Amino acid sequence: MTRVVNHLLVYLILGVLVLAPLGAIVYEALQPGAGHQHGVALLQLGVDQHFLDSLSGTLGMAGFAVLFALPMGFALAMLMYYVPPRWTPFWEALILIPFLIPPYLTAEAWSLLVGPVGMIEQVIGFLGSSLEGFLFSLAGMGMMMALHLTPLVYILLRAALDNGNPRLLQAARVHGASALAAFRLGILPTLLTALAAAGLLVFMDTSAEFGVPALLAGYAGVQVLSTSIEGATNVWPVNLPMASAIGLVLCAMGVLVWFLYRPLVRNNEGQIQRRAPARSVWWSILPIAVFVLVGTIMPVLAVLAISLEKAMTAGLQASNFTWEHYHHIFSNSSSGFAALLTSLKISALVAVFGMASALLAANLVRRGGRIGALVDLLGTLPMAVPGVVLAVGMILFWNAPWNQLPVFGHPIILAVAYATVTFPFALRYARTGLAQIPPRLEQAGRVHGASPLRTALGIQVPLVWPMLVGGATVVFALSMRELVASLMLQPAGMQVISTYIYGNFRQGVIGNGMALSVIGIFSSALILGLARKALIRR
Amino acid sequence: MPSELSEGLQIQSLRVELGGRAVLADVNLCQETGTYACLLGESGSGKSTLLATIAGLIRPQQGKVSIHGQVVSKDKTFLPPERREIGMVFQDAALWPHMSILDNVLYPLRARRLAVEKSRAMALLERMAIPTAAARRRPHELSGGQQQRVAIARAIIAKPRIVLLDEPLSALDHGVRENLREFLHGLFAEEGITALHVTHDPGEAFYLGRRVGVLNGGHLEQWDTPERLYQQPASLVVARLGGSVRAIQVPVLESRDKEAVLQWEGQRWTVPAASELQSASQATLLLRPSDLELDEAPTAAPEAQVRHAHWHDGQYLLTLQASDGQEFLAYSRQGDLGPRRWQLRRGQGWCIPLQSSANH
């Protein structure tokens, strides 16, 4: 009975979160046109110059991101593995931070740093202007994504290096291979697989990105698919079949890359093992520090500085200092504060229900078989489907004339969207948690008289609790920064933190947006820290 | 034949398939209430699968399982594990790390909604030589042997109809294992608990089991007393699990009830034989080192070449090669290589139908 309920709940959750929006997209893209021909919108893409430009823009941006992120991630992984600097954990934390900063915020920060009146020019008097041309170009957009995704490349390569068998290297050296030949024989094969996986991941994430191109592509004079989809749904005349057709192409690209990516990371969970530290050297700090400066310190300082300045152009001086933006956010009728509260509430809701659903699904995946494989496939599919496509699918599904459920136009639609986007991450945490429990512990519960429900609540949940809390933390953080689905689905008169920051930036009210960024980061960190402390017992 | 009520465990025609492959096939056994039995087998023989099937953790494709006369698995009938009233001890103790030692022991009472008698649990822990102060500790604070004792206490506290033990001693050090083996023997005999213990260690099985079964490739090769398992093994596999043995292929001159007359190395030998031998012309003669006499062999006895000798248990264990090239083992006071005369002791050796297997 319990098993049947588990199955039904998982099918319902995955059906609503994943299948419904994707089904709606496919249905809409294949709708008959005026000439009663099916799939007209799709066919028209072949001769649509705007689409072809967008496609080449997306491929170019993703290509540049791969081109920049792989060498940076590779260099960082090799340095940290073979010649780590002193205080390795500290530097590792700094390397990973850019991934925690939403890419649109990094792009906003860098657009404030460059230019003739940008902060770089204000502080050092040169370089800012010449960097402006680079930032507002296809390569610059690729670089912004590369800064955001280099930590992922680093994690995958470090895991490959750590999981490699040092005996292979030793065996090669003992049997006459030089250090280089031994590296080529013992390390390079696993490293190449990880590099390929990392390249695909960067390509997939970049081609799905909305925020960075939305901020930079206009100035760079390029178009990409994600912004074209958003435009087709938001800008008059709204063309949903066109949005669906472009979405289907973007989705197909993501799924194709994802299917290439999955087998490559089968044995690479991205877990960095702790090993006996290699001898530290001082000079490896230099290249690592350059990345940390560009990826973390400069954007964070820019956000912080702008949030405390009266006028950007006046520069960094005492007379230009103000708390005004923070006062504004915390004032009674501030829409920024309302956006923050809304984001916190919805993200917390998604974190709790997302992890509970993921645990149910993970139980089915663990049992294996065809159903397990299908649930795994559906549960991780949103990783391959760009947020903008999911958002269009949700508009089509929840706003369909036959759908009488009052979800569209209600804040709950954002929770549904966030739950879909974050489900693969939640599922991964739940699966890892379950994998850490020896099946015997649950079998012991059943054999000694506990029902399946009692075993789940009394044995499984307490044992996976730290992973559930960890997963909920990630889901919460990802929900707090989600931009594109929020932009497209937020009900009229309502904003969340990401749309507030984005909207203010687009309208030139930058200080308030930056202040809310700082408040959002600190309040999330505080809430998550307190929640973890309260929920995870030693 | 034991009556229905005295059957602690009965298994009939059991078949289990996992991933489309038969892991257990046509397994039959009957264990009396209150006895301790062991299942012996190599890795992958299906012994843990059999235990999991009895526990209700695996649903069999075919066959019947009864515990204390109640059918728990047959055709559509399948009682879930929690309703079988059993206890189980796992190889790695499988204590719940988030619960105290006491809560681990009390769990079966709570799960079955029985009276939670803490004093009884404490008394049981005391009997298991677990210090009272340790009852509030977490499992990882105990040694491996202590954890296994707690797991035994958990398995028996709710007075189960049968306790299943899945290689409970194999993860422990030699000394702890011997100690716990003696403890198990005493405890289960005193309490009169029916127990089925799975192991790959013949010494453990022969020490603990009133009956011992040998599983090989999913088949129960023999279910018997330890004595018969050693002296009259049903197959070469069973014989090997009982200790050092060599299998010799020999022609059968005559087979009578429980005896066979064999021709080997120019001599006629009368040896005990399995009834399945019947009118076979060839048979497998199973020889253990103690079945042969070397030091007192008469001069008319056949000769074999000593190929290897090593000191073993106070005498030499010799590897001899007969004139037809077949090898066998024997004990002797002398360890010289070269020719030696030998003879088969009266009533020793065991003849079974021809087994196709290498002579090792």
What's the gist of this structure?
The complex is a heterodimer of chains A (538) and B (360). Chain A is mainly alpha-helical.
Commentary on this structure:
- Chain A: Belongs to the binding-protein-dependent transport system permease family.
- Chain A: It holds the Pfam family BPD_transp_1.
- Chain A: It is found in: Cell inner membrane; Cell membrane.
- The complex is a heterodimer of chains A (538) and B (360).
- In chain A, α8 packs antiparallel against α12, α17 packs across α20 and α21 packs antiparallel against α22 (452-481).
- Chain A has helices spanning 2-29, 40-45, 49-82, 88-100, 103-113, 119-124, 128-135, 138-163, 166-174, 179-186, 188-208, 211-220, 225-234, 240-264, 285-307, 324-330, 335-367, 369-380, 387-398, 412-435, 439-447, 452-481, 484-489, 497-507, 510-535.
- Chain A has 538 residues and is mainly α.
- The two termini of chain A are 34 Å apart.
- The longest helix of chain A has 34 residues, at 49-82.
- In chain A, 76% of the residues lie in helices and 0% in strands.
- Chain A has 25 helices and no strands.
- Chain A has one domain: MetI-like fold (Orthogonal Bundle), CATH 1.10.3720.10.
- The model of chain A has no long low-confidence stretch (mean pLDDT 88).
- Chain A is globular, with a radius of gyration of 24 Å.
- With 360 residues, chain B is an alpha+beta fold.
- Chain B has two domains: 4-236, 3-Layer(aba) Sandwich (Rossmann fold), CATH 3.40.50; 246-353, Nucleic acid-binding proteins (OB fold (Dihydrolipoamide Acetyltransferase, E2P), Beta Barrel), CATH 2.40.50.140.
- Chain B has helices spanning 47-55, 101-111, 118-127, 144-156, 174-191, 202-208, 226-231, 236-242; strands spanning 7-18, 21-32, 36-40, 62-67, 70-74, 77-78, 86-89, 162-166, 195-199, 211-216, 219-224, 246-256, 259-264, 267-272, 282-287, 292-293, 303-312, 315-321, 327-332, 338-341, 343-344, 350-353.
- In chain B, the strands form five sheets. A six-stranded mixed sheet of chain B has the order 7-8-9-3-10-11, sandwiched between helices. Chain B has a five-stranded antiparallel sheet with strand order 2-1-4-5-6, covered by helices on one side.
- The longest helix of chain B is centred in the middle third of the chain and has 18 residues, at 174-191.
- The two termini of chain B are 37 Å apart.
- The model of chain B is unreliable at 1-5 (pLDDT under 50).
- The A-B interface holds A 438, 440-441, 443-452, 454, 459, 462-463 and B 52, 55-57, 80-82, 84-88, 90-92, 94, 96-98, 107-108, 111-112, 154-155, 158, 164.
